[in-house]
């Protein structure tokens, strides 16, 4: 089993001569918050991200999953340089973002965009839709007022909103429509890579499917790369090509979506997926969902951060931090004993039927996928005022 190189890639040669270079590569990313002296005492040091090395391939959808507080949003924001790392580098299309001048970074900002979780909080209530969407175009520079107006109209159509909605204000829209405005704002600067930070979790389930489908459609049409931070494993399975599983500031497993859902290797991934046993092969292995809470990132356990909750923990896990190790098929796992755990779990049982709730959600996605062509033609002619149907 070949170990990873410093930048989180498999050793040179494994990628193959024809594989395109990643659009983004992170190496040794660390982000600590706090730890500053305040009057009489020091604020606690929060170790949000601890030495993550990974890459994002051009045109893929990479999902980042994990329990609340494990550092998903922080990692996402570090990758698009919305946050400055405490240590480590992000190389975007061959350029180290840490070495750019503020001016160079501002010019590059349009290529790296974000869609926020909460469409109610993330839009300025005092700005019209037209102002919200045209601001990034204006910031990019080089366009006249008329060109900006035309581009706003085009982008609104692209995200399924009517051009006459441009003069309205965010409070006049439904949740799904507001998230479409958030998507329009992200698209306005012609991005190459978009971070979706829980882009659908604040929305009603039926609206979630619309936004998921919109993002997928835009990704294909505009050749975007997506990083999706989310905790909804059904949405992740539907949307992503690869999944990075995080635990307490570290990536513990990284694999293609099908591989990960069919046979998770890390005990944390297994336990995470056991919360939706019918949706994954972990149902075959009677793995229990996780007990207890994630330890505090201000005082993380030594060695493997997961050992305090891991059913397979051995003394070594308390002593040494496991490295992300390359496994066949481009998958990576950070566990000292993944081979033993995988071998012990080779007693497959039939997969249980999906729960009624999961079945409903999967059916909804399928229906929305099937209705996409119809929806698109509907949007361009007589778009709906409210996001009520697929
Ligand atoms: N600006 C900040 N100052 C101090 N601590 C922070 C800050 N931002 C995040 N943290 C802490 O860093 C840790 C990781 O936070 P982060 O938001 O990245 O987690 P997450 O996995 O995205 O959580 P959630 O799913 O709940 O959004 C948490 O303990 C959080 O409290």
From TrEMBL:
Domain called ABC transporter: residue spans: 24-273
Protein location: Cell inner membrane
A GO MF label: ATP binding
InterPro entries registered for this protein in UniProt: AAA+_ATPase (IPR003593), ABC_transp_ATP-bind (IPR050319), ABC_transporter-like_ATP-bd (IPR003439), ABC_transporter-like_CS (IPR017871), Oligopep_ABC_C (IPR013563), P-loop_NTPase (IPR027417)
Family matches, as Pfam families: ABC_tran (PF00005), oligo_HPY (PF08352)
Main location group: membrane
Coiled-coil portions: none
TM regions (residue ranges): none
Domain of life of the source: Bacteria
SUPFAM superfamilies: P-loop containing nucleoside triphosphate hydrolases
Keywords: ATP-binding, Nucleotide-binding, Transport
Chain spans, region Disordered: 1-22
Keyword ATP-binding among UniProt keywords: yes
Membrane topology listed for this record: Peripheral membrane protein
Keyword ATP-binding assigned: yes
Sequence similarity: Belongs to the ABC transporter superfamily.
Protein name according to UniProt: ATP-binding cassette domain-containing protein
């Amino acid at each position: 089993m070949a170990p990873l190189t410093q930048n989180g890639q498999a050793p040179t040669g494994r990628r193959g001569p024809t594989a395109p270079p990643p659009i983004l590569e992170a190496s040794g990313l660390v982000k600590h918050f706090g730890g500053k002296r305040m009057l009489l005492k020091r604020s606690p040091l929060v170790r949000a991200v601890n030495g993550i090395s990974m890459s994002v391939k051009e045109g893929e959808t990479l999902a980042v999953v994990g329990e609340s507080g494990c550092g998903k949003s922080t990692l996402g924001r570090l990758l698009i340089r919305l946050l400055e790392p405490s240590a480590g580098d992000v190389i975007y299309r061959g350029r180290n973002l840490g070495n750019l001048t503020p001016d160079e970074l501002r010019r590059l900002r349009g290529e790296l965009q974000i869609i926020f979780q909460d469409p109610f909080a993330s839009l300025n209530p005092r700005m019209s839709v037209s102002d919200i969407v045209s601001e990034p175009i204006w910031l990019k520079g080089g366009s006249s007022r008329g060109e900006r107006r035309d581009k706003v109209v085009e982008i609104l159509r692209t995200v399924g909103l009517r051009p006459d909605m441009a003069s309205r204000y965010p409070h006049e829209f439904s949740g799904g429509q507001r998230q479409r405005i958030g998507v329009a704002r992200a698209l306005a600067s012609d991005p190459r890579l978009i971070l979706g930070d829980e882009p659908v979790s604040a929305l009603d389930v039926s609206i979630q499917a619309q936004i998921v489908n919109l993002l997928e459609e835009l990704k294909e049409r505009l050749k975007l790369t997506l990083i999706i931070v989310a905790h909804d494993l059904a949405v992740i399975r539907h949307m992503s090509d690869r999944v990075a599983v995080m635990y307490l500031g570290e990536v513990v497993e990284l694999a293609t979506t099908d591989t990960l859902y069919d046979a998770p290797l890390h005990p944390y991934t297994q336990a995470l997926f056991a919360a939706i046993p019918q949706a994954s092969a972990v149902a075959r292995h009677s793995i229990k969902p996780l007990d207890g809470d994630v330890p505090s990132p201000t005082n993380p356990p030594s060695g493997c951060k997961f050992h305090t909750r891991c059913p397979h923990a051995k003394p070594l896990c308390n002593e040494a931090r496991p490295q992300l190790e390359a496994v066949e098929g481009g998958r990576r796992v950070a566990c000292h004993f993944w081979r033993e755990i995988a071998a012990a779990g080779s007693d497959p049982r039939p997969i249980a039927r999906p729960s009624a709730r999961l079945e409903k959600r999967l059916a909804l996605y399928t229906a929305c996928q099937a209705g996409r062509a119809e929806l698109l033609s509907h949007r361009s002619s007589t778009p709906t005022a409210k996001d009520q149907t697929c």
